[in-house]
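Notes continue from the previous slide.

Worked example: a multi-chain complex. Inputs as given:
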Amino acid sequence: MSKFCRFFRRGVLGAMLAWASTGWAEMRETGVWWLPRNVSHFGHEIDFMIYVILWLTGITGALVFGAMIYFIVKYRHRAGVGAIHSHGNNTLEVVWTTIPVFIFLALAIYGNEMWGRMRMEKAPADALQVAVVGEQFGWNVRYPGPDGKLGKMDSRKIGKDNPFGIDANDPDGKDDFTTYNDLVFPVNRPVQLHLGSKDVIHAFYVPEFRLYQDMVPGRVYDFVWFKADSVGSFQLACNQLCGQGHYKMFGKLAVVPDSDYLAWVKGKAPLTAASPNSSAETTAVANR
Amino acid sequence: MSTATMTHADAHGHHDHHEATGWKKYIWSLDHKIIGLQYLFSSLAFLFIGGALALLLRWQLAFPSTQVMPDGNVGNPLSLPFINPQFYNALFTMHATVMVFLVVMPVLIGAFGNYLIPLKIGAGDMAFPLINELSYWVWLASGFIMLAGFFVAGGAAAAGWTGYAPLSSVGAYNGARIGQSLWATGLFINGLASIMGAFNYITTIVNMRAPGMGFFRLPLAVWALFITAFLLLLAVPVLSAAGAMLVLDLNFGTNFFNPAKGGQPLLWQHLFWFFGHPEVYIMILPAMGMVSDILSVNSRKPVFGYRAMVYAMIAIGFLGFIVWGHHMFVSGMNLVLSAAFGVSTMVIAVPSAIKTFNWLGTIWGGSIRFNTAMLNALAFVAMFVIGGFSGIFMASTPVNIFVHHTYFIVAHFHYVLFGGSIFAVFAAIYFWYPKMFGRMMNETLGKIHFALTFIFFNLCFFPMHNVGLGGMMRRIADPTVYEHLRALQPINQFITLSAIGLGFSQIVFLVNFFRSLRHGVPAGRNPWEATTLEWTVDSPPGHGNFATTPTVYRGAYDYSVPGHGKDYIMQNEPTEPDHPAGSPSRLRPAPVG
């Protein structure tokens, strides 16, 4: 970063800050011009990929813009100096076709390999199972009870009063507890998500996890998992336009030490047999 | 080529029509030039409507009406209270809809396609003049139908220009059933206009080229429009069908897209993006073609690698149909499928790279004239490169999932669509204005307009990359509700100020455009000393374009041919027998006919 750039940024930012009608007490943990903090294990790979592409495009850009500016200056119209007559050069065409083909194929293969791993790698067996179901405009969250097992989600059963599509008779689901717009994850422990939607498409987006997943209604997404490697408090944002209240469809998301997590769980009452889920079954069926 | 001659003579019989006079000339004319101007003026009017919508939504992002201030009051003191979240959603939905369907497509294809194709291929008019005029009025009607949404109960469509179901398809979810229905109806009708235009262009270019005008003597602008017409013909019917299905879902109890009733939301995404990705190229190919011509004329050099340019555009045309799935990586897609779409998406970057290198090759060794048209064309290349680079981030699947729905992608497509297509439109207007109206635009005002637009454009859209990487979602009515975005608010305000600057810079353009209609310097036939056929006739050309059908003897780019007095040779200038060999002879076969 050159001195001038720093000066320019500070100047612009300073002016904007002074001019903005309010002071902004909150500052980010990272600078406002770049990536937010990264706390997820896959996130580091994604960031690395971003830097690979950034270097690649940066170098190519310097060459292309360098050539462009050089040509613009050198070949400006001057009296008495004519243009070269050339229809092209086939060798050059082959060269500048072949090189990008290899670069882009390499990028595609590298990206697909990483994507495949992120999608195919199974969550470790000890992963905390958490269900998150979006609705206009909030997040239903369901944690397993002492048995560590979530009730089985069935996308066909998701309905108005049964956000998670759980069979009322499923023993695994009886001790689960639910929250609304409130997620707490233990640090350094894998978390496997079960994502669904009650109405329109929502998306699970946490920039600090480098995690984005659409939640198309009518399906349950079981393949997303992550491991947060440091504590902090974040926000879960809906990132697929879902209607009027879309902009404020966010939930609290905290990554905390294991002990704090256990204390938090302790304060939660399990669902009982009289939970809304049992009565919801009939409604959900009627809805269909 | 002999078939072209025959069919041309053949076609003459039925496309002749009389010149309309008086007011009728400007309302219901069958002349392709008037239709082109109708498209030009209407789409420029829509450009200002779309721009005004953009400024309103930018204002809300900088000074949200919903912002909770430190003193506990709701609403930034500078905010516009009538912009509530639902209206904000309608603003960005209609901004994109207007810009895509009522500005970029019609100005590139409707205005310049209509105006230039017959003139550049040496034809008197389009193959189907009546359908041509009909297509304009149908298109205009679609615009009014879509915009009518602002005046109905519930407001205009607010589900994004991509109209993802089931938000778009269920009135209870989107709260704007009537507006959404008007939007979908508008898309359907807009599609009809595109289809009418597309087969007209294809028929005209295939059948009505002047004698000697082989396909590989066509200017690249015509090639680009030719390929674009095929894309339109194959992609737009799919969108029209989807629009019709959406109207049925919204109003007539069908459930194509509603999973609660057994429908499939992903069906909409497949239909939309099967249209939507070719659409991206529909909106850039004609711009590429016109810029290639403008760069060549003003560098006084033939287009570098003419055939490579043509093949690259054909490749884009094909590949454009097999990349639509990359918009759906985030919907949860089979891995083999996502790998295939990932590879095709990366590969489609290759022809774009080829074109960029050839544009650089074209200005290399030239004698560059920096008129306003050329400056805009050069800006097109530079901005398109930046837009292409940010596209590479998106094509990489793992990165895509992080940046896909952030301001990074907003930056990306504005670099391609505004930095690309709109700069090309400005270049084309400055370049062909003398032909259209017989007078030159003012160069000083033109350069002021260019400089302001270029600077404000970059100040407005470049920081969007940063806020996008910083995690700012697109399509949120108020970023200040998010803790991690509050610190970005000064940048958002800066972007808004730059957008306002960008919007008001266009006043210079308007003044120049309308002032020059009366006060511009008379242009003469060929003010830029260009070689193609439109410059062989009067400015503006008379009804029927050519007094006698021209015969074409050479390719479209004979600039600075050694051994000639002047540095350009018109396409209809006969080859001299003792002509020195300046270029490969295959580029200039003996004339036919």
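Summary box: Chain A touches chain B through 103 residues (CB under 8 Å). The domain at 128-287 of chain A is CATH 2.60.40.420 (Immunoglobulin-like).
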